[in-house]
Amino acid sequence: MKTKDIAKQYGLDQASFDRWLKQSGCQFRSTMTGLAIDDHVDTRELVGRYHRYLVGEQERAAAEQDRLAREQAEADRVAEAKRRALASMLITSGFNFDGYRITKYSGYISGDDAVQVARPRDGWLGVRGDVGADLLASLVTIRRNALAELKEAAFNLGCNAVIGVDFDYLTLDPETVNSNGGTLYLPFLFGVTANGNAVIIEKDDRTSPR
Q1: How far, in Å, CA of 97 to CA of 199, rounded?
Q2: Which of the chain's termini has less CB crowding within 10 Å, N or C?
């Protein structure tokens, strides 16, 4: 009996039924018009096995969806907890916080960022706009990014504060020789490193007013 006839009789998806049949262990043969099974095979029992397979696949798919949903919920929970921790993390250029005591020092950490600034093509005097303002805006951005990376480093150490924060700055004015032997001035590169010491701090009850 051809599988297309079985599919029509029982309202099955023939392509899905054929795929299952090939891995079911049931004997079948290929014909010019598709797959076929021997006439002595109990088609009702075979279709029953196929339906049980579909139910099992649906249950496995549902279980997988549930697992992925739980994993995503946990990932969202962890991400939100991290966001809150980073938002509440205290940093200072000093070495203590009023009302807190340091309970653990986890060591030196740093955060870095850099920006590439294109050179004026017509010389500084021929440039439209405020070049100095553009450079300062770039500096503000990379300094903010370096601080964010510094906080990430502290968070990864299990800390909730950073002390002794300062900045190191790097300016590069790169140039090289072009194919004609002249000087090729490359874009300016400005870098910043935020340094500090990661610590764990706790509220100091001894300093709280009574």
Answers
A1: 11
A2: C
